[in-house]
TrEMBL record:
<dbReference type="InterPro" id="IPR008220">
    <property type="entry name" value="HAT_MetX-like"/>
</dbReference>
<dbReference type="GO" id="GO:0009086">
    <property type="term" value="P:methionine biosynthetic process"/>
</dbReference>
<comment type="pathway">
    <text>Amino-acid biosynthesis; L-methionine biosynthesis via de novo pathway; O-acetyl-L-homoserine from L-homoserine: step 1/1.</text>
</comment>
<keyword id="KW-0808">Transferase</keyword>
<keyword id="KW-0486">Methionine biosynthesis</keyword>
<feature type="active site">
    <location>
        <position position="299"/>
    </location>
</feature>
<comment type="similarity">
    <text>Belongs to the AB hydrolase superfamily. MetX family.</text>
</comment>
<dbReference type="GO" id="GO:0009092">
    <property type="term" value="P:homoserine metabolic process"/>
</dbReference>
<dbReference type="InterPro" id="IPR000073">
    <property type="entry name" value="AB_hydrolase_1"/>
</dbReference>
<dbReference type="GO" id="GO:0004414">
    <property type="term" value="F:homoserine O-acetyltransferase activity"/>
</dbReference>
<dbReference type="InterPro" id="IPR029058">
    <property type="entry name" value="AB_hydrolase_fold"/>
</dbReference>
<comment type="function">
    <text>Transfers an acetyl group from acetyl-CoA to L-homoserine, forming acetyl-L-homoserine.</text>
</comment>
<dbReference type="Pfam" id="PF00561">
    <property type="entry name" value="Abhydrolase_1"/>
</dbReference>
<feature type="binding site">
    <location>
        <position position="329"/>
    </location>
    <ligand>
        <name>substrate</name>
    </ligand>
</feature>
<keyword id="KW-0963">Cytoplasm</keyword>
<comment type="subunit">
    <text>Homodimer.</text>
</comment>
<feature type="active site">
    <location>
        <position position="328"/>
    </location>
</feature>
Length: 358
């Protein structure tokens, strides 16, 4: 993509972006859909794991022939975010001196990430998106697309997300960043060529985060006060819920980079589409496309109130609710409800376009 000047004033001399696509772009490039991944996702939205794809798709069933995003009709694009570790330039990438960026990797904002995505769209010949959709950190980029490029988005679906990070989210993010940066193997961010990884810190960060991704009532119903099979908490054994978090920590350590985790957590904390634009409402005013704001009713990390704020700033519409016992992760689990919301987002845009044609 070439050099990028960042909001911080710093720059990256060269940026590579990993892109995955499905379907075909039509002649007038009017059928393109952009999918935005969350914190630990990537461009592999659907499909099995395999060579070059260490994990299976994270939104299974959403894209394909006959799916909500029907690849017989739509050209679907997903990128790995700037700062990522799945093919796009991030702190583990090599700097011009041939050494990993590590601690020298600049601060990246959600706005910077979307600016890079706009350049990807330019390269693909996409002047405007039929739909931009994403959840959590992905929803932050959807909101930023609408504010940064209002004429390039015809329909937007912000799922389980927010127009600006809340103090609560920044606080949880700080604990996660400190968990990683206090791991001696983090080495100030310069561990990449030292033969170590801050596995302990990244695992601790994931335990903190994963707890916020699930609802307290789900954890209570599933695990209660039970000890893990064969372990007695009164004798130093683990509770079932502790074993569950250990499992998710180990899985993330096996598939994700700690430096990227820190970089992306910082970019989520500084997310605010109203920054330098006079606030949320002013930032949304130039956008005349459809805005679908979708929240999970049991989400304690991105509570429904944050989606209501976005709707109030927009001045019209209402929050569409996904009903789930799972909390924030409901946006990854309640696929049928997400698919229905995506279908509505695509249908409402179609109806608007039909009205324009008449
Ligand atoms: C955009 C993106 O999201 S990034 C890429 C995809 N995201 C992720 O992978 C995030 C990590 N995963 C998750 O957050 C969740 O697994 C989701 C949201 C994908 C799915 O949620 P659920 O289907 O409810 O899975 P759940 O949270 O119950 O986890 C199931 C795992 O916990 C394990 N588990 C359950 N109870 C216990 C226990 N007491 N002790 C140890 N492990 C346990 C299961 O064996 C299962 O393991 P597996 O995933 O290795 O097969
Ligand atoms: N489980 C998701 C939730 C973040 O919103 C992830 O790991 O990216």
């Amino acid at each position: 993509m070439g050099a990028q000047t960042l909001e911080s004033g710093e720059s990256l001399p060269d940026v590579t972006v990993a892109v995955q696509t499905w379907g075909r772009l039509n002649a007038d490039a009017s059928n393109a859909v952009l999918i935005e991944h969350a914190l630990t996702g990537d461009a592999h939205v659907v499909g099995p794991s395999g060579p070059g794809q260490p994990t299976a798709g994270w939104w299974p069933g959403l894209i394909g022939p006959g799916c909500a995003i029907d690849t017989a009709r739509y050209f679907v694009v997903a990128t790995n975010v700037l700062g990522g570790c799945r093919g796009t330039t991030g702190p583990g990438s090599l700097a011009p001196d041939g050494r990993p960026w590590g601690s020298r990797f600049p601060n990246i904002s959600v706005r910077d990430q979307v600016a890079v995505e706009a350049q990807v769209a330019d390269l693909l010949g996409i002047t405007s998106w039929r739909l931009v959709v994403g959840g959590s950190m992905g929803g932050m980029r959807v909101a930023e697309w609408v504010a940064s490029y209002p004429t390039r988005v015809r329909s937007a679906a912000v799922v389980a997300s927010t127009g600006a990070a809340s103090a609560d989210q920044i606080a949880w993010g700080q604990a996660q960043i400190l968990a990683i940066s206090h791991d001696p193997d983090y080495r100030g961010g310069d561990y990449y060529d030292q033969g170590v990884v801050p596995a302990h810190g990244l695992g601790l960060a994931r335990r903190i985060a994963h707890t916020t991704y699930r609802s307290a009532s789900e954890l209570e119903d599933r695990f209660g006060r039970d000890g893990q099979d064969g372990e007695n908490p009164l004798r130093g054994g683990r509770f079932g819920v502790e074993s569950y978090l250990d499992h998710h920590a180990a899985k993330l350590v096996g598939r994700f980079d700690a430096g990227t985790y820190v970089t992306l957590t910082r970019s989520m904390s500084t997310h605010d589409i109203g920054r330098g634009r006079g606030g949320l409402a002013a930032a949304l005013r130039p956008y005349t496309g459809d805005l679908h704001v979708i929240a999970v009713d049991s989400d304690r990390l991105f509570p429904v109130e944050l989606s209501e704020q976005l709707v109030r700033a927009r001045g019209s519409g209402s929050v569409q609710l996904i009903h789930s016992d799972y909390g924030h992760d409901g946006f990854l689990i309640e696929i049928d409800q997400v698919a229905a919301a995506v279908d509505r987002a695509l249908s409402s845009g179609t109806a608007r376009e039909a009205r324009h044609v008449r």
